């Protein structure tokens, strides 16, 4: 059972880069782990750190700035998550502490992988994202509230609506991943397997 996502309020960090690919999100040398945990420490490794070992933080990178400590909503630019397909990218983001990413567009596979891993990808119009960048840069460390049930982002005194397919919305609100969905239909699956076994015998 995954963690439920209905409403979330968190600090927003602005990553003002377009075409952020999965290798930037989690470099390939950190993909050896077999579990979903532990990837957050390597998130944006080549940008967050001045050395390959990840020991010297880059003071100029936005995630290392004190006002964004504990940020859980990532605001970024178009085509986020492009490049090679790797489920480790949303794993790294959620392990770091992010609950949602707001952008004008996402790479299709990254978008699907995010929904499957309880990371909410929110697509807004480019003009709306521009407004949010201006707002966050003027009020560093501010929070947004995301209401998934209403499909809204509350930022300052404005409300932004976003689209999400009803099935993904239902799964995220109820904390259902692929395992949870399978368990919901466990009785039906068992009955089907019994019928198949009887038929084959």
UniProtKB/TrEMBL annotation:
InterPro entries: 3-IsopropMal_deHydase_ssu (IPR004431), Aconitase/3IPM_dehydase_swvl (IPR015928), AconitaseA/IPMdHydase_ssu_swvl (IPR000573), IPMI_Swivel (IPR033940), LeuD (IPR050075)
Pathway: Amino-acid biosynthesis; L-leucine biosynthesis; L-leucine from 3-methyl-2-oxobutanoate: step 2/4
EC number in record: 4.2.1.33
The keyword Amino-acid biosynthesis is assigned to this record: yes
One Pfam family this sequence matches: Aconitase_C
GO process terms (BP): L-leucine biosynthetic process
Main EC class the enzyme belongs to: lyase
Reaction(s) this enzyme catalyzes, per UniProt: (2R,3S)-3-isopropylmalate = (2S)-2-isopropylmalate
Gene Ontology MF term list: 3-isopropylmalate dehydratase activity
Database matches in SUPFAM superfamilies: LeuD/IlvD-like (SSF52016)
Any GO CC annotation of this UniProt entry: 3-isopropylmalate dehydratase complex
Record's function text: Catalyzes the isomerization between 2-isopropylmalate and 3-isopropylmalate, via the formation of 2-isopropylmaleate.
PANTHER family: 3-ISOPROPYLMALATE DEHYDRATASE SMALL SUBUNIT, 3-ISOPROPYLMALATE DEHYDRATASE SMALL SUBUNIT 2-RELATED-RELATED
HAMAP family membership: LeuD_type1
Similarity comment: family membership: Belongs to the LeuD family. LeuD type 1 subfamily.
Subunit structure: Heterodimer of LeuC and LeuD.
Name of protein: 3-isopropylmalate dehydratase small subunit
Organism the protein comes from: Candidatus Hoaglandella endobia
